[in-house]
Amino acid sequence: MRTTSTSARSLAVLLLIGAAGCEPADDKADQGGEAEGADGAEGGAGDGADGDETGGPAPTWHGDVAPLYVRSCQTCHEAGGVGSPTWTGPDDIATWGPAIAVAVGSRAMPPWQASSDCNTYEGDFSLNDDEVDTIVRWAEGGAALGDPDTAAALPEPFQPEVLERVDLVLEMPDAYTPNNASGPDDYRCMLLDWPYDTDVWVEGYQIRAGDPSTVHHVIPFIIAPGDVDEYRALDAADPDPGYTCYGGPGGDVETLISTRWLGSWAPGSGAGISPDGTGIRVSPGSMIAFQVHYNVTMPDPGPDQSAIELMISTERKGWADIQPWTEVSWVLGAGMDIPAETDDVEHVFEYTLGRSDSFSFYTAAVHMHTMGKRARMTVVHEDGTETCLVDYQNYDFNWQRSYKLREPVTVQSGDTLKLTCAWDNPTTEDVAWGDGTGDEMCLGISLISE
Ligand code: HEC
User: Among residues 74, 63, 141, which one has the least CA distance to residue 101?
Assistant: First the structure.
């Protein structure tokens, strides 16, 4: 099944997607692993980690695995990292051999989904097929340490980007203890006052998770001055700090039209930084709706008071914006049908840039929900050549992040943005666009700038 449609870009409705949301972390391991395993089997992936077939000597930690670990795992899994478990050294890691074999073999770890056949990205910590195979054979073959005297040279661990300065820190006004009475997930929006009385340009932001063991993702939304009262009313109506929100910051459709994303954060994401000389403009009287998805796997979670650090210019900067892309009619309920019990249902959105459109893509991401199977965002240039922005061959809802292109992709009038999504719908219900967990989306998200 395939439909193609073209329509004018609209910032508006796109913002409904707010919940670049995620699943519970425990589901994550389960679902992610299952889904990926199944997809791999279906695709007949040639990377099946069958140690015997390769015939080479069994890999060892010092000889083969340590460099891969340092490059692709260590930053998250060492003490103080965002991963769980955290490891103290090779002996400790080796005891996790079976779990590592599963996590890496299923490609749930490392959590990087953008195919390197499509483009190259900053901070890429993915593993290629051979590297996956090496780790899996090592882990399955007893996780031998080998000889430290002949150890392979170690690369630099990847480091998430950091802000070069912090001009403003906005913290949640009150600590909030996530509520796990009705399941592991609690989506909460907190309003943060915007202190400037002139236009300013946000050059970069960094999320500081107060309690990293419960904070699963954060999306700061910029609420336009005219909508602030509506959001204050939502907050006032809820006795606890903030208010519940899922598919976005919680306002009605009209206010969503004027709501913009300031960024998004998931474990392992660094700072979000606009291209040199640019920033996301924020007007006085705006407010930040700070959406936190808590995933609570422990019985008695502690309070969280997360914050956003901002690098701000009060002097005029070039424009940058986080642009959502999708087919407006899908959002309004038409044309993105995913019938019950169907596999690989594909829908395509194409938008040809108009006369005044000329800008560059700096990041790319596609957002779907849990039925999402594969997705791709490309630019088809007027001369027929195509530049791939991001390609998910095995989409996993649980690891939403955006991928920063090493080289920005410049587009102009006549170029066509093409967004393709495909889903498997194993349920007995037809599915369409919606912001609930059982609904689906197909949304490209990109930082664009002049
Ligand atoms: C961007 C951060 C990040 C990177 C890089 C990363 N991990 Fe993880 N890892 C996590 C997080 C967070 C979890 C906790 C489970 C979850 O949220 O899915 C996890 C969980 C795991 C688990 C436990 C899964 C289970 O069964 O509970 C294993 C094993 C693992 N990672 C191995 C690895 C290995 C091996 C690498 C490198 C090849 C790696 N990870 C790279 C963040 C990361």
Answer: 141
pLDDT tens for each residue of 53-103: 555 788 999 999 999 999 999 999 998 888 889 999 999 999 999 999 999
The bridge status of strand 403-411 relative to strand 416-425 is: unpaired
- Centre of ligand 1 to C-alpha 108, Å, is 8
Domains of the chain: 2-15+322-449 (2.60.120.230), 25-150 (no CATH), 161-320 (2.60.120.310)
CA 429 / ligand 1 centre spacing (Å): 33
Instruction: Using the atom order of ligand 1, give the atom closest to the CA of residue 82.
Output: 12
Band of the pLDDT at 212, cuts 50, 70, 90? Answer: confident
180 pLDDT tier (thresholds 50, 70, 90): confident
**CA separation for the pair 57, 351 (Å, rounded):** 52
Is residue 20 scored above 80 in pLDDT?
A: no
Q: What is the pTM of this model?
A: 0.82
> Which residues, judged by CB distance below 6 Å to any ligand atom, belong to the binding site of ligand 1?
25, 28-29, 72-73, 76-77, 82-84, 96, 99-100, 103-104, 109-111, 125, 127, 267-268
Q: How far is the CA of 444 from the centre of ligand 1 (A)?
A: 26
For the cut 90, the answer to whether the pLDDT of residue 369 exceeds it is no
Pick from 84, 86, 134, 397 the residue to mutate for probing ligand 1's pocket: most ligand atoms within 8 Å of its CB: 84
